[in-house]
Amino acid sequence: MNSSSEAPFTNLTDCAEVQVPSQVFLAIAVASLSENLLVILAVIKNKNLHSPMYCFICNLAVFNTISSFSKALEDILLLFTDAGHLNSRGPFELKIDDIMDSLICMSFLGSIFSILAIAVDRYISIFHALRYHMLMTMRRVMVILSAIWVLCGTSGALMISFFVATTVKIFFVVLFFTALFLILLLYVHMFLLARHHANRIASMPGAQARHRQSGLRGALTLTILIGVFVACWAPFLFHLLIMMICPENPYCECYRSLFQLHVVLLVSHAVIDPAIYAFRSTELRNTYKKMFLCSASRICKQCV
Amino acid sequence: MPRFQFLNSTSMPNHNYEWSYEYYDDEEPVSFEGLKAHRYSIVIGFWVGLAVFVIFMFFVLTLLTKTGAPHPEPAEPYEKRMRLTSCAEGLGRQREAETRTGLSRPLLEESRSLFHCYINEEERDGGRVTSDAGRTGSGHSRGQVEAVGLVVQSMGMETRAEREAALLAHFNIPNFVNSELSSALGDEDLLLGDPPIIMEEARPRCTHHIID
Description:
By secondary structure, chain A is mainly alpha-helical.
């Protein structure tokens, strides 16, 4: 954004838009791409990970991969445009821009739905443990996943086509807050049950220290889970709200000038997600060890 | 923002039309004069609010771990205590005295002391409480069931789920979902201390197995 055209309106208290260099975006996108591709590879390779829980985690990784891939592509095209090879207002470029925006939008919606699906799956596995394998058959999981994909695909396309309308932004904000509320509800209920049981088990002699420590760790895990989700998504959503509510207020203008920082946060959510969901599982970590040890031993054998 | 100007001189030779795209994104007259508060006050307020929310949530969760899930105190536990053995009666009388003086013992401490009481009783009965790997006989388990049942009744736990939870705390019922949960949620405790399962549907099966 060029502020020199607004010379009569600018003074020393102007909030110039904070520009984030595209190298940062590219680095985050590459890191997210590699992490999520590793997760997808591990889930596909290991037969033990072909369960509903890991299907949902893999689905989240797929959506994160798509979002980081399309963001990286958009950055590369922006670099080309800045270098002058592409016309920023040509019809072809605008179409490509629309397609990438709708892919990004679809993957953002998809990751919210995937996180919600993971929370519901964990909830069912805890509160309906015996019926879990009857409720969550692989067929139902596939149906749920395809429903998520269809919904996100159409919503992404529609939202980008009609982005100017405020209903789209309101829909996005409402969706986020509903998802956040549901996730909070599910996880806190699971946490309460876990504490309830842990307290009873701790009432038996000799389990005192372990009880306190495990309780704190559970609280920390839950806080990290929800805190990261909120910290990465809320600034962007608040930006959308501010765009609708106060487009001309100078304070709001200063908040909106940090747009690129908020997008960085949004994209870094795709980097943090595997660490919170996928890499926590020992089975997945063992798969990596096997993969890397096998390839390392093969390389060693070839060298010797 | 670039402005494109097209001179359309073919259709109407006498008039020169000037076509231009007007981009209104950054041409709003937002004046920054006379701001009372700091210009980034909304930004600061937003992040402070977010941090307060996260820290508040963390403190609420840690408070829950310290005090345990809130339980309503049983309304009339006195008559139920008549069924308990001597040491438990002593504890009950102690509790009565304390409530009369205005002190209230947390339920957890009370249950712990009752468990201690029962375990001591069992030990005095001749070592039936010591774990016997080869003997999963009903005698041992029945004694424990009775103890747990009485304790559960005395603590006023009326709901079926809580009774089962207390029963489960004493029995290692092999559960295939356990291993899946622990692998799904990680070895270090994520959300659950020990993956506890409420088995609503297993109740008829389990109790038949235990009681028979």
